[in-house]
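Hey, resending since the last one bounced:
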Amino acid sequence: MSVDVDIKQLLEAGVHFGHKTSRWHPKMAEFIHSKRQDSHIIDLTKTVEALNEALPVITKTVAKGQKVLFVGTKKHLREIVKTAAESVGQPYVTERWVGGTLTNVETINQQIKKLNTLERRMASGELENRYSKLEVQRFQEEIDLLNTRYGGIKELQGKPGILFVTDIIADKNAVKEAKVLGIPVVALCDTNTNPTEVDHPIPSNDDAIKGVQLMLDYVVAAVKEGAAAPKVAPTTSAPAKK
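The structure tokens again:
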């Protein structure tokens, strides 16, 4: 059973409100319905089509045991992106995208290993027993900083199966790294973006909290559907006859 996308919900959430016409990207033309005053209006029938194409891809990815990396670093969207990802046990990046997060795994893993070690030593009381209060405070500050940068991906093993990005301009580096590695990207694409930069563009307002929240709800539903799907063991080919 696929996720049910309701065009009425999209309308009520303001998903159709695009940017000012002066800021539009010509490659979004096919997804634009009309103009209202000095702003573009997104064609929600195209949004429904895009969601109906992208959400099953997310479901299949999760059903194969792979992760969906949620990316949304715009300040006013960070909390809802983090909450959505955590609700389904998926990794996320909601602070600054650290260069090399996907393409320089060795360095990133060293930082995550450092974070895990410090957290373990702090939790066991080892740091408190060995160091002064000021030094322990500095260790905690380092833990907090590392968690800000890597906390959402510290449980990620290997590369994600797919990225869900809420703004391909704000998080262009995430999109670039995914492209280098051949990781598919599902992304919200407002009228000022180039939808050809991602594999599965979803024409949508990428600023309004209510609209982005609805999109996150759909993605979360797709993840849950994939997690609930029966896991199929990989088939082994029969030995060749001599």
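The two ends are 44 Å apart (CA to CA).

Sorry for the duplicate.
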